[in-house]
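To whoever is on call:

I kicked off a structure prediction for a single chain this morning and the downstream step that reads the tokens threw a length-mismatch warning. I double-checked the sequence; it's 202 residues and nothing unusual in it as far as I can see. Pasting both halves so you can look.
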Amino acid sequence: MRYYESLIKKIPYSVYLYQINYNQLNSIMKTLFQIKALSFFVCAILLSSVAFGQGIGKAPASPRDSVSGTVAGANIKIWYGSPSVRNRKIFGGLEPWAKVYRAGANEATTFTTDKDISVEGQPLPAGTYAFFVIPQENGSWTVIFNKTAKQWGAFKYDQSKDQLRVTVSTKVIPLQERLVYLITDSGFSMNWETTSVPVSIK
């Protein structure tokens, strides 16, 4: 009888110890959860700040631009990426001499005409073309109308796909910070840094 009485007396104490251990464990779990939630919140704030600093509200370095007009009865449109000089040497520096250049930034520049035209005295059928140039330190530059209109830069440029190649004489102009294309009554030009590349259309 005394054995059972002593056993009964021990039960509440064991339950009490269990309750203490359970409460301690529950408290620890809550603390860990709060720390984890706080860490997640801090990481989210940091990532949001980085994303904001890198993209949101920041203008791209080479924004897309376009120009259109009517030349020799044809509707012309040129779509291009517009990089800036930013205190760099462009032709003969950033863009090497005698190497095909995308004539813009990022995607290749595209040239569209809705009618057959004559470029520098050579026929160019209506259509959309990738437009490239080959800068030369001395002498005339080569301008290229390539039948693969959609391509990234000149990385996969294929000369066999050229529709037309002509040579033009460049002009020296005052510093042009951002690359631009201009359409005139007699054709168009690519102007950047201190170089203008005029192309005649008839």
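Update from on-call: the warning came from a stale cache, not from the record. Cleared it. Sanity check on the structure: DSSP finds one helix and ten strands in the chain.
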